[in-house]
């Protein structure tokens, strides 16, 4: 049997080794996350060009291979319009937010504070400046990556489920395409604005992200109710469509449950976006 002192030393060594390993993993993850965010920030113009080119190619293919082919250029443009709007929406969101919130600017705090969980005091200007200059790190990086990935994921879902429809196709098909186009255009636009606001440490970012979540759920519920009252829709189309909408609602709820508490109590979020630190800090 080992002595109590030796067992204590072994336990201490194991605990120290475990903490060291966890710290190394977290530091590596933090560096990877910051590198990923900087990549999106610095290469955004290249990504935009690739995005537009990819969506335009897909739009062309879907229009040419439509079940009911176009009989004129004008008809073909009308069939491709939903995909052209998809190509433009996140780009417009990025341009709008990037122009409104320049890099390096420390924006003023909102007049009314909504996040009142915990005891906080105003941070010094130096602490705020360092936090803004340092950019996003830690778990905040995971949130930013999740936000930006919402854009291609929603786009792929749209492209996989929505065909190019001819003006002569059934009315229910036009209603589905219209509803899903509004959804994907609005949400890719809003999520791109959220991403830029987070990158630029804009104080309104947490509120705008909450607004995007509410808009996302409202659109899914609204589409489900709207499409449920669409006459003539085949069951083979309705069932997978409603499954997609319910899946989107679940994904938004999961995001809210994970990230809303973090946005309220995180020291980094409160310093970077609300310019405050804990009262006992």
Automatic annotation (TrEMBL):
Instruction: Work out whether the entry's keyword set contains Transmembrane.
Output: yes
What superkingdom heads the lineage?
Answer: Bacteria
Question: What are the TM regions of this chain, as residue ranges?
Answer: 46-65, 77-98, 131-152, 172-196, 208-228, 240-265
UniProt keyword annotations, A-Z: Membrane, Transmembrane, Transmembrane helix
Keyword field contains Cell membrane: no
Q: What is this protein called?
A: DUF2569 domain-containing protein
Its lineage opens with:
Bacteria, Pseudomonadati, Pseudomonadota, Alphaproteobacteria, Sphingomonadales
């Amino acid at each position: 049997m080992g002595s109590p002192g030796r067992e204590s030393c072994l336990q201490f060594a194991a605990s120290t080794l475990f903490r060291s390993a966890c710290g190394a993993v977290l530091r590596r993850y933090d560096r990877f996350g910051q590198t990923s965010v900087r990549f999106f920030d610095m290469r955004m113009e290249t990504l935009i060009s690739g995005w537009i080119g990819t969506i335009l190619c897909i739009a062309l293919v879907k229009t040419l291979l439509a079940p009911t082919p176009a009989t004129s250029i004008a008809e073909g443009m009308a069939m491709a319009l939903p995909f052209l709007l998809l190509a433009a929406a996140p780009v417009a969101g990025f341009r709008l937010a990037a122009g409104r919130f320049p890099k390096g600017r420390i924006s003023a705090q909102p007049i009314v504070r909504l996040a009142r969980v915990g005891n906080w005091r105003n941070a010094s200007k130096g602490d705020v400046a360092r936090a803004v200059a340092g950019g996003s790190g830690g778990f905040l990086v995971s949130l930013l990556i999740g936000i930006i990935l919402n854009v291609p994921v929603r786009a792929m879902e749209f492209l996989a489920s929505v065909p190019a429809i001819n003006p002569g196709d059934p009315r229910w098909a036009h209603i589905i395409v219209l509803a899903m186009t509004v959804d994907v255009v609005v949400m890719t636009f809003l999520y791109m604005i959220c991403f830029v606001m987070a990158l630029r440490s804009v104080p309104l970012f947490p509120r705008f992200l909450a607004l995007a979540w509410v808009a996302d759920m409202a659109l899914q519920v609204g589409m489900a109710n709207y499409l449920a009252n669409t006459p003539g829709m085949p069951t083979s189309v309705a069932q997978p469509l409603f499954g997609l909408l319910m899946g989107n609602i679940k994904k938004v709820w999961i995001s809210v449950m994970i990230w809303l508490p973090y946005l309220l109590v995180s020291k980094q979020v409160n310093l970077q976006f609300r310019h405050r630190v804990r009262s006992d800090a």
